[in-house]
């Protein structure tokens, strides 16, 4: 019997787990009581995590390829698969240039994997065409932080929960999607009944039900609400004049903007009582600790960056940031979305939060990597742009790593047409559940969680080490090894000559020297000894005899990462630019997660216990909208948008506002059909700054299904 300490590979809470490998090879798992993020707690998904690696029935076991898509896949060896892929990449790059190829990766990739793919394409191939599915969930928060605080820096930590007396949850349902954080919030509230929880969500959820105030706003009116709260904070003099004067810019424009709309007008637009907006503002204004949590309700929007800014504004005008219990806290939906941001895993950034458009940042990385080419000076294709470029034959080849775009991309017709038209597709994944496998020219089997070593960073900047505990089945290889083997086939072997991921990690941490996310000197040994470290590591640890934990909170000196060290308050407009509803499509569809599933169900869908909670997809519809359409509970309905349709059973509930309906995002195929796929309906509008899609607002019609 042997035990291993690892980290849950679902959401960004990053709970520590202890895995026990029995003598007979069976695994058992429990929460790690010593891990500061969860202190032994696990949610239903985390508790059943080990089943995802024990069931190997649908695993990809060996490399496969075919010379054209009409042929069946053939089993090949690793050398053949990687040599052919390298040959195709070299041919395309020679003929069409480095921007003819792209990597589309995942927030589930480990930090080392992210770093290597970035190094390969940005430093050695000469293109910035790498983007991640995290673009679909947190890029608006990244841009929001940068514009307001000067850098993509989550300023807070989980311990701020217990130091807060107002917890503002907006566009998020942590009770289901980040359950361990929510348990801490609930325990804090139970011990301190005066603590106020405010939930902003167009739906009633388990989060709103355990809140003191639910602001059930109309979809798309988040900025209207936040600006109205800002107006009240100014009018009631709850703002921190001294902080504003000493540490921020932009307040006069903000004041002018929020005064343009009365609270009564805002309440009407939001569809809530003005008195409730006043209550929220009073609580925020009077509290000592104001902590705000948000996820996709703000981020996945055509105005996602401005929604983020409108929330961060509330912290800046009240000076409630950089102190215990205060600050904006974007929750990440994936286990290593943060690690991707640190290593440059987006089309516009480089490792160490450097920018591709910054000449000195490019020069630093060119020197560090000793690149044979110049790093391109413009951002590469983002997630949606990649698929559009494939469909237009501007992009010739795509390498998809551990993500399932045929369920997760908006307006799925575009992604499907793109893969159909693409010249060359490599799919690197764990299981054949990924819908992309059928479009692949080359399939590369990847090792799963527990089968490979590496690191991840959770939502509070906490880096933990994940050990290899079991062997991968068949010929599956760790993703990092696949990339360094491929780099060698491309002729870059000298710069990708790693023996293990520990060497990759050491190289990554060295390149953070002098940056705001400096983790120089952090290595596997230190992470194993300390269990975890929050970046940046500012303590000199040579003579340090106390445990090294890194940095809990940022901006405690109120020196922000902007050029003049002052945070920027933004006067953001409050109009929503989502697609309009119409007579034909009069309802707004929003989508999201359910308690026991995660993403496109390629992992959670394999666990029988998790499938029991909600076995089938459903549409939540308000009773008035159901009655108007003569639809009864449990009947099959057709949901149509300007792009496609979905057929699922209806759940009639007042949990949604009239005019709003809700569909879970998880389901791809059911009984061979894609008719439960939410992204049949969504559109490819994106926020102009973050390029994050408008998943949460699609104009639809719902009608009773009638057999043809
Ligand atoms: Fe895993 Fe997130 Fe659940 Fe923690 S809260 S056990 S990280 S899914």
Automatic annotation (TrEMBL):
Q: Which organism is it from?
A: Dyadobacter chenwenxiniae
Taxonomic superkingdom: Bacteria
Q: Identify the cofactor(s).
A: Mo-bis(molybdopterin guanine dinucleotide); FAD; [4Fe-4S] cluster
Coiled-coil features, chain-numbered ranges: none
Name of the molecule in the record: nitrate reductase (cytochrome)
Similarity section: Belongs to the prokaryotic molybdopterin-containing oxidoreductase family. NasA/NapA/NarB subfamily.
Q: What does this protein do?
A: Catalytic subunit of the periplasmic nitrate reductase complex NapAB. Receives electrons from NapB and catalyzes the reduction of nitrate to nitrite.
Q: Which UniProt keywords apply?
A: 4Fe-4S, Electron transport, FAD, Flavoprotein, Iron, Iron-sulfur, Metal-binding, Molybdenum, Nitrate assimilation, Oxidoreductase, Periplasm, Signal, Transport
> What's an example GO BP annotation here?
nitrate assimilation
